[in-house]
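Retro notes - structure team

What went well: the batch runner handled both jobs without manual restarts.
What didn't: labels got mixed up in the shared folder, which is why I'm recording both outputs here explicitly, each with its sequence directly above its tokens.

Job 1
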Amino acid sequence: MTTAIATYRGPWRMPLALSVSLLVHALLLSLSLGGAGMGLPGFQLPWKERRLEADALRILLTQARPAVAAPAAAEPKPAAPPALPAAPLPLEQGPAVPVATAPTPPSGSARAEGSFVAVPAPATLPGPADDPVDPAPRHAEQDTQRRTAEQADERSRQAELAARQAAALQEAGRLEAQREEQARQEAARLQLERAESARKESERLDMARQERERNEAAQREAVRSEAVRQEQARLAQLEAARKEAEGQERARQELAQAEAARQEAARQEALRQEQARLAQQEADRQEAARRDVARQEAVRQEAARQEAAKAELARQEAVKQEAARQEVARQAAARQEIARQEAARQEAARQESARQEAARNEAARQEAARQEAARQEAARQEAARQEAARQEAARQEAARQEAARQEAAKQEAARQESARRELAQREKAEQEAQREERLRAIGRQLAEEAAQRKAAPNPAASPSLPAASSLRRGWMFGRADPNADLVQYAAAMSRKIEMNMTFDMVRDAVKQAHARPVVTVAVRADGSVEKITFVVSSGVAAIDKLIREVVASQAPYGAFPPALARQYDVIEIRRTWIFDMAIRLE
């Protein structure tokens, strides 16, 4: 047949070969094992097995012997049916049912031998009133029917037990599949929760970043507003100074015009009286010459004043340009900080996307592993149960690892909190050390000042006043301080010295070679100057003396604000004095 199929070259070669193969396999699969007798089992077609009715019962009747009177109780019991196997038979197969026979007993007793069918006896049997033969075969027939019924019941119970076992196995498989599905759903839920927590954390970080940016913008706006306000105040002061200079210029011009008119009248009067009083004319000429010298001196002084005003304007312009440069530098730093934060945010987003991609890959790998385990479970249930146990152990291990991770995260958070506290304590200790060092420096300065006062031969020569030890004193040795009132008061004091044209007092003296003096000015709560101390001298006694005069000329510097007055009685402000086109305090 195979050769004939192979040599067939028509278009139906493949369907014909497939049909023949299906028929052969169907025939082989339809064969079943049967037979309950001795010997090797044989093959039998399934349609030969009758499960709903019994085969025809053949009965052989023999005549009873009258000489033998064997009591019914003396009859031997029929042999017990053969024991059935403990293993359940498959539902789709069953043993072949042989026909039961009743051969003639060799010893005269009616005993039936042979195999029995698995169905009940026929419904119509001859009763005792209709049976004209000997009762012994009738008893054998009843025993045969009884044993047949018992075997049928036993096989029914076995079939029911096999069906229950199959249902139990199916139920166990269904429950195992449900457990796997629940485990998969639980893993997916945990993954979604982690993704949601990561998303919320990212949103929280973005909100914190936006809040920080808003705060920084507000701070920059406040600084810009303060700079604008200060610039407006400076411009107002310059405008007032300009108007004052214009008023002085107009007064000088009016005076010059009046002086010229008076001189013209005097000259005409001198010409008119020239013939009479020559000596008086000479005196008038000398007086005019003296007045001309005085006018030229006034013009020179006015030119010097204008030069000073121009220098002051140039210095103020330089200060404004420096402030603009610093503002540009600060904006550039802010832009760099924003770019750095944006790069950090993009890096965090990239890491988050990589982590999510890894999580998706891991979920896909786990899903593929679960499908492979399910396929193996369909092929072999025991291996599936072991795989389920392994997966349960893996889930427990994952839960344990998750708990360990959370515990490690808690420990890490606690460690970071302790580190933050330690850092705060160290910063506090450093600040305390700096404060102690500053106090020690102040103590050394006070000791040096006390030594200087003791060593001074003439206390009246120094305008410094002794400091009272019982007064509450505050110090500011730089531009920054946590006390905002103190910073504002020191800035106002510096502006008053810089803006009131005090440079004219030291213009000639600072032309000499000198160092930049560092001066500490102690101011009382009412704005008066308590003392002036030179931390670093300029090296020129005239400059040091003029600095004292400048500080004294601008006193008082205004009373302390209420909040500052509640804290201090005296404030010592240290500044470095710089002389270029004006006086600048740094």
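Job 2
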Amino acid sequence: MVPEAAGPEEDPDGLEDRLRRFATIWSRAIFPATATSLTRPEFETLLLPLARTLREALHAYPFDTTPAARVGNALIAAHCTDPEALGRTLGVIESYLVLYCGTDELTTEDNRARCARLQHALAAGYAHALRERTLAEQEAIARSALAARSEAEDALHATQARFHAVFEGAAIGIGIADLDGNVLEVNDTLTQMFGGLEHHVRSRNVNEWVHPEDAPHVWRMYGELVRGEREHFQVEKAFYRNDGTVLWTNLTLSLLRDAEGAPQYQLALMEDTTERRLLHLRLRYEATHDALTGLPNRTLFFERLEKTLAAADDARFGLCYLDLDGFKAINDSLGHSSGDRLLVEVADRLQSCATASGEMVARIGGDEFVALTTGPDTCGGVSELASRILGVLASPIRLEGREFTVRGSIGIVEGPAAGRSPAEVLRSADITMYRAKAAGGNRFELADPEADARAITRHGLTTALPAALERGEFFIEYQPLVRLDDGAVHGAEALVRWSHPQHGVLGPDRFIPLAEHTGLIVPLGRWVLEQSVRQARFWQQQLPAGALGAPLRVNVNLSPAQLHHPGLVTDTVEVLERIGLPPGGLCLEVTESALIGADEDLLKPLRQLAEMGVDIALDDFGTGYSNLANLRRLPVSVLKLDRSFTLGMQQHPADPVDLKIVEGIVSLAHSLELAVTVEGVETGAQADHLRRLGCDTAQGWYYARPGPPERLHTLLLADAV
């Protein structure tokens, strides 16, 4: 029964429609080569579930080619026994399966690789089914003919005639030999398989047809057969022809007994599988080699690596993971065609580096290559291999009339093979390669398990960041800002924390750089701003009017990414107005390094906020090597002096140089009408020195560590009393 076409609601992506188009193309291609009694529409309906099976196999994870072999069997069952039907089927799959049924979850290269492996499996399943069908028919015929030949004398001529018709007309090679192996009879098909000269076959002994690729058990089973211990066996076996070429066959050898049951002859049925084997080898090559460079691809590399890692316990290996530096710039400037030519040249050079026994080079995607070496001395050998690779890449490559020097970054993993998986090894090499790239490129680095663990942790945190914000895993602690003249709490700095389910509470240094890299810093920063402003408004509402003598202020950090976000001013104004906090109750802290060399476009949003009454603090002042004269053009009202300037004040007597530096900065800031806040105050001696030097406010563990808003609320109430 033909399944109903899926409606728009049932098949929103048109998957069923594309599958039907694929089945239509398939049926039109092979219907003329079939021996079926079905009409073409009926035949198309027959092919539709087979097409669906191929699509599901293409999408399957883990990938498995077994369904494709069943499709090949099904074609034989549908009477598609003409060899042309197989060729047309493989052509349709190669041209249209990925086009109509490919998955976006895989790259085009991986889709094509899977498609090639499905073609191979289908061809193998088709051939197996055809062979079984043919052998079953022909062996039954041959047995009947030979049995008839040994029957009654009066039927001898009729039996011989029937036997001769079957023997000579068979589509597979048939040979009869005595128990000593001497060939007695061969049909024309077998003669043609061996080159067309009958005496070159009939005059030989079976024992002469030994081939180096014979499986060890072949001749053992042959001995059992001629001794009467086995009735038949079936193997794949190669033979040498007289001209030296190789004939591959599926050989079925059977024992013929006389009327008393004693062994008498051996009957050989041979199917020529040479072309099918060549097709298998071609499909195997295409599935395991890169189409552009001819190097082994990711599939073959993983097979080799897995075999290497499964070797003896004392085996060692070395792996170089190479990524070209700046290849994208060449692709963008000269186009992908030139980029492909460059990759071909690089592949040739890499191939010249891996010529020793146990070495191989593969392209695993894009501009990424791997080189594998095995042997007893991979510790030194893999470093030498990496040096050779960088050496051959150093010579300029000429493209489009210009010379390009190709650089590469290499990550090396070396060690004992036992106990490691291919995915683990490649991940470590990939991480190490990026360390080499981060160190400037054109170099190699050795794998470091501790560095790998840190990189894996960073990746895990990066992946978990978006969901963490949605699940409310972030919270804010507040560190008091204290006026140095009277010790009263002036405000607080909001410091975001991440309560990670596995790693516990993480400080901003662990995740803020990751948030900036992924772009999540903008929504995270807006959340911190809103929570901090809401908390500051709550404190103001809970304190008696005029209790602190000055408006309470909350300091919120801004990252460079937030400074460049076009919605900075709009978001800040919206939060302040919605929550009801006066602009003077908010101070935005910007690091000095973020404003070094800032142009007017970057300073414009800060100026707008400053004109509204929002304070702008220059955080970590003194670490960015900025020109002090530039302070006049920055829209800042507060300098936050870095803690490094006050470390010398913890000792007694205080470092006179630090005292002079801080005194000069405070004098300069006050002359520019800027307030000075000092970070990292840890002792009373520091606080006394800073107060005498004229600093306005301070924060640090001497006053209080960052904590929940309730603790700061207690401090505020204490100051208000």
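One thing worth noting from job 2: Residues 108-149 form the longest helix (42 residues).
We'll revisit the folder naming next retro.
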